Amino acid sequence: MGFSLRKLKRIFLGMSGTDGFFIKLLIYAVLVGIGFVFLYPLLYMLATSFKDLEDLLNASVHWIPTKYYSGNYERALVVLNFWQMLLQTLFVTLIPAGVQTLVASFIGYGFARYEFKGKRVLLILVLTTFVIPPPVLIIPRYILFNSLGILDSIAAYVLPAVLGQGLNSAIFILIFYQTFKTLPKALEEAAQLDGAGHFKIFFKIAIPMAASAYLVTFLFSFVWYWNETYLAAIYFGNNLTTLPLQLQRFVDSYNRLFVTQGGIAETNLNEGIEMAGTLLTIIPLLVVYFIMQRWFVEGVDRTGITGE
Fold first, then answer.
1. Which of 5, 113, 231, 273 is the most exposed, fewest CB within 10 Å of its CB?
2. By the 8 A CB rule, do 92 and 225 touch?
3. Which long-range contacts (C-beta less than 8 Å, at least 24 apart) are formed by 156-159?
């Protein structure tokens, strides 16, 4: 009897109590549940976006449309002005994200590898900027940018990034600070003996060894700038528009484009068209994630952050 109990225990709990059948089943069940929570909205949007009006009104049609219908995407592409807005969105996200990543690495490297008076105070002040609510800074920054004449242009994003005050820059500075602090000083000392200066050490040694931190920082910065609509609406005005901003104006844009002069819509706005527009807005981010998934996961693991 005792032998049978021990054998059952090994089967369900494993040798160490954490690698048995029951434990693995529980872990997989939790992972499947979490995956379902994240995937359900995407699957719902995908299924709904291919439904025509008949399928949307048919209560018996839940997930699989009765026929292939791409009309929702055709209208959504027109309403979003997709290709032009995609180029503008990439323009106002890639450049600030790249500048922010480079500047944050400079600052993080300086804090990690050099000793100077007031270093701890300055580091605390830099990190404190993350806890200041962004709405508190909007009015002063708007007045400053207006006086500098950089509103309605990408400079309103680039200037704070150049000065180490881009979107959530404090987090990125901390990531680089922790990354560079773990680099062995023996490498720098050997490079100095070979006659390398500070800049050469940074570009030839520090940057290659912190590649994972650069990748994670750039991707997070890219996503945050992409999803930022409040600051974009204030700083850019009507000169620059992003896909998320276009999505916010989707209903008004649709009515303006597809309502006839008599006030009767050629095709009323429905859930299928809205889901198609939403998917078109997030597809570029999904493409970037799937392409960079392997390196992104490795970078997150090495830098020790959990993401948002």
1. 5
2. yes
3. 156/235, 156/236, 157/92, 157/95, 157/96, 157/225, 157/231, 157/235, 158/95, 158/96, 158/99
Q: Is the pTM of this model over 0.90?
A: no
Are 157 and 236 a contacting pair, CB within 8 Å? no
- Mean pLDDT, range 195-210, rounded to an integer: 82
Are residues 66 and 130 both part of a single domain? no
Shared domain for 41 and 96, answered yes or no, is no
Is 185 a residue whose pLDDT tops 90? no
Report the mean per-residue pLDDT for the chain: 82
Do 41 and 123 belong together in one domain? no
Where among 18, 53, 71 does a domain terminate? 71
Burial letters for 174-200: b for 16+ Cβ neighbours within 10 Å, e otherwise? bbbbebbeebeeeebeebeeeebeeee
Question: Do 138 and 275 sit in the same domain of this protein?
Answer: yes
Rounded to whole angstroms, the Cα distance separating 222 from 95 reads 9
Q: pLDDT (tens digit, 9 = 90+) per residue, 56-114?
A: 888 887 888 888 888 889 999 999 999 999 999 999 999 999 999 999 999 999 888 88
pLDDT attached to residue 304: 53
Give the domain extent around 37: 2-71
Look at the chain and report how many structural domains it folds into. 2
